[in-house]
Specification:
Length: 396
């Protein structure tokens, strides 16, 4: 027995249905029932040739134009492509050219991403850039419509599409829940009959190897639109009990300079605990996956009502706050892997008016993830046109 949707062949994952006298797969039952050996039905939507173009508030920089041209060239070679871009380099903008070309040729295009919140953001950005297209979001709370000129969905919702997309763009492939999730990978593979573009700031080793063997094309974009280097984090080795003191000193210095700080901690419990202590000295609060008024807190933070925000990895991606610095407490904790540290540090210097800033990592011991994060950022900075010297500051 085999499940044609998730590829499961383990007997223990199949359940017997006495009414229909057949077996069905329990491994992917969350995506609807599918019987053992039942063929997947192709889901095809009618398309026609279009004549659309995209409009951006800021034109593409020359680095972005070069990256878009390289994507075009590799697409002609019919290769799947890894787009390896620094946080804030504008990876969404450089794939718009591909979207336009595919849609104009009468092909179906999908854009999948891990988190629901980002689906809604990307849908809004795409609808602005392509005002002549019907851009739809398919995610939790939005599934009345499953076809549009351009479909933006969560990775989970890809199960609704079978051999549907001629071009499937997959963003944040290094993020939970897609990373290392065999079930979602198989579903994504079934959704696309054509070419795939993978977007990430932290590709895993398997993908990088595939680019070396030529199996996967690669396009790199490390220069952000303002061309300033990425902040390289300063690592502060100290005992767990001393980390709070270092943090307080850092926060005082930032407050004097009227700079807001995002403080990342490993767990929700830590966020609550540290927020309670830091509230005695600073205007601060905690924001975790359990916080109800997330949007309100973020809006208040944008308005400078807080000096600092204590948060977990829930805020590691997607958020852009002008002129922010970041600090990570217990950066040697297992939740902070290379990808999440790069994303956290990537929150710094995203605004063209404040293109640089500081990031500190407080830890008891140097982990291989911290080392790899710093090395990856240094590598990205080395490719920038001006020669910026980046130092790895280690203090004890
Ligand atoms: Zn299955």
């Amino acid at each position: 027995m085999e499940c044609k949707r998730c590829g499961n062949t383990e007997k223990s994952w199949f359940a017997y249905d006495p009414f229909h006298r057949n077996y069905y797969c329990r491994k992917c039952i969350a995506f609807g029932r599918i019987n053992a050996d039942e063929e997947l039905k192709e889901i095809h939507y009618e398309t026609s040739k279009r004549n659309c173009h995209y409009e951006l508030k800021y034109p593409l920089t020359s680095a972005q134009q070069q990256a878009a041209a390289k994507i075009r060239q590799l697409q002609n070679e019919k290769k799947d492509i890894l787009i390896y871009a620094a946080c804030g380099a504008g990876k969404t903008e450089i794939v718009m050219d591909s979207i336009m070309r595919y849609i104009n040729a009468g092909k179906k295009v999908g854009f999948a991403i891990s988190r629901r919140q980002v689906v809604l953001e990307i849908q809004e950005r795409m609808a602005q850039a392509f005002p002549m297209l019907h851009v739809i979001a398919v995610c939790e709370g939005h599934h009345e419509e499953s076809d549009g000129d351009l479909i933006i969905c969560t990775m989970h919702q890809l199960y609704r599409y079978v051999h549907t997309f001629d071009l499937l763009i997959m963003d944040e492939i290094d993020a939970f829940p897609y990373r290392g999730n065999q079930l979602l990978e198989t579903i994504a593979a079934h959704a696309c009959k054509g070419q795939r573009l993978y977007l990430t700031a932290t590709p895993d080793e398997k993908m990088l190897k595939q680019t070396e063997t030529g199996e996967l094309g690669i396009v790199e974009l490390f220069q952000r639109p303002h061309a300033h280097p990425l902040a390289t984090p300063r690592v502060i080795h100290t005992y767990a009990s001393m980390q709070l003191l270092y943090l307080v000193r850092f926060l005082f210095r930032c407050r004097k300079a009227e700079i807001q700080v995002l403080v990342f901690v490993p767990t929700i419990k830590d966020a609550k605990r540290y927020a309670r202590w830091l509230r005695l000295l600073f205007r601060c609060t905690d924001l975790t996956s359990q916080t109800d008024a997330k949007d309100q807190i973020l809006a208040d933070f944008h308005k400078h009502k807080y000096d600092c925000l204590i948060t977990t990895t829930v805020l590691e991606r997607g958020i852009t706050i002008k002129g922010i610095y970041v600090a990570v407490l217990h950066a040697d904790h297992i939740v902070f892997n290379e990808a999440s540290l790069i994303q956290i540090v990537g929150r710094v210097g995203r605004n063209i008016e404040m293109p640089s800033g500081e990031a500190i990592l407080l830890c008891q011991r140097m982990t291989s993830d911290i080392k790899r994060c710093i090395r990856a950022i240094q590598k990205m900075n080395e490719t920038l046109p001006q020669s910026h010297t980046v130092k790895l500051g280690v203090r004890r």
